[in-house]
Design a protein that fits this description.
By secondary structure, this protein is α+β, with helices and mostly antiparallel strands. Helix content is 46%, strand content 14%.
């Protein structure tokens, strides 16, 4: 039997994350939305606390750790670090998505390192903040079209190319850069390299002004003959055409449920705020009655709430499968697609239902509607997720189904 409640061993984590979301994230949400590119100093103490939890073996739940699949085959059902991380993210993003993404040493690059780095690399990069650079001016969700090149020259790889929309790119110590070893070999030649800030040839060219998640900096870089030690390549350096894109895609299989969890947290915040606003004007929901027998506003929110629950369960399933060493590429993309779309739909509908309150900067619904859109875009857009799902269900390759 499936138990849909939060596992008891994670309740302390979710309670703590909710307290952080309330007292720090939600309390500073509007402040750093207005002060774009300002560093949220309130996060420094929180980051130190989470570092201590990591050293003690606990999981902070912000996404930097807990994506390695360590369960043994005979361990049976396991609720592990992937699930705990997703649950923590859901609570924190109920507070603010941008501030979660601005957390020191908790970047998506850290998740990439935790997913595929060897033990020596894990120790060498421990305690450092890592961003992840995938997107290029001519390459968005279709990562197979990456044009940044990496050429082996002695003990170094020489990287050349351009990267845009790098989350935490300005503040991070390291950037995990995706580049191709041989463009003629397609996806199989794409590898990820850890580039340290300050490396000659690695230039920050601008910070983006964005629709939402303004507390999080988003950078653009140019790599010009940037020499990276060959020991900084993550994963297998060999180009295996038969294996294809599987090596670097493991990162997405682990991080897409994390992004879905961000969308779940923001969706819940929108729903709870809208219910509260309706209650203030006397609109109540009766769960014992069909939606059609209630007010239009209540009926609309009940439908949105059903979408929210479906997205939440898909996300937990994808995380649970990772904890139990089950292939979850299909489920990770389904969760990301459903959660991203649901978040945008719910946020916009809640603004509509609440009218002037939803559109005003005096309330956070307006901000959440702007924050929501990126959760349907980064880590693979809605369209690319549906394409991946179609390929998995139909048993088609990327060449057969484009």
């Amino acid at each position: 039997m499936i138990n849909l409640e939060t596992p008891k061993k994670f309740r302390a984590l979710t309670d703590q994350a909710h307290l952080v979301a309330t007292e720090i994230f939600r309390a500073n949400s509007r402040k750093y939305d207005r002060a774009e590119h300002a560093y949220p100093k309130e996060l420094d103490m929180l980051a130190s606390l989470m570092d201590g939890m990591e050293e003690a073996g606990a999981r902070g739940g912000a996404g930097a750790s807990g994506v390695r699949r360590e369960a043994s085959a005979d361990e049976g059902n396991r609720n592990g670090s992937n699930l705990s991380t997703c649950l923590g993210i859901m609570e924190l993003c109920w507070g603010d998505v941008g501030l979660l993404l601005a957390m020191p040493r908790q970047g998506l690059g850290n998740s990439a390192i935790a997913s595929v780095a060897n033990e020596e690399q894990l120790q060498r990069f421990a305690g450092r903040w890592a961003a992840m650079a995938i997107t290029e001016p001519g390459c968005g969700s279709d990562s197979a079209n990456i044009r940044t090149t990496a050429v082996l020259d002695g003990d170094h790889y020489v990287l050349n190319g351009e990267k845009i929309y790098v989350t935490s790119g300005d503040r991070a110590d390291l950037v995990v850069v995706w580049a191709t070893l041989d463009r003629s070999k397609g996806r199989a030649a794409i590898k990820s390299f850890v580039v340290e800030k300050g490396t000659p040839g690695f230039e920050l060219v601008r910070l983006e002004h964005k629709l939402g998640i303004r507390a999080s900096d988003t950078a653009a870089f140019v790599l010009k003959d940037c020499r990276v030690p060959k020991e900084n390549l993550l994963g297998d350096p060999e180009v295996n055409v038969e294996k294809g894109f599987a090596g670097v895609m493991q990162t997405f299989d682990n991080t897409r449920p994390l992004v879905a969890s961000m969308a779940i947290g923001l969706t819940r915040a929108c729903l709870e705020e809208t219910w509260a606003q309706l209650k203030r004007v006397g609109v109540e929901v009766d769960y014992s009655k069909p939606a059609l027998n209630q007010s239009a506003a209540a009926a609309a929110l009940l439908a949105l709430e059903a979408d929210y629950e479906a997205a939440r369960l898909l996300t937990l399933q994808a995380a649970w499968m990772a904890d139990n060493r089950k292939p979850n590429s299909l489920q990770a993309s389904m969760a990301k697609a459903k959660a991203g779309r649901t978040c945008v739909d719910v946020a916009l509908k809640c603004v509509e239902i609440c009218g002037a309150i939803g559109y005003s900067e005096n309330d956070l619904l307006e901000k959440w509607a702007r924050d929501a859109k990126i959760l349907d875009i980064f880590e693979g857009t809605q369209q690319i997720q549906l394409l991946i799902v179609s390929r998995r269900l139909l048993g088609k390759s990327s060449a057969e189904l484009k």
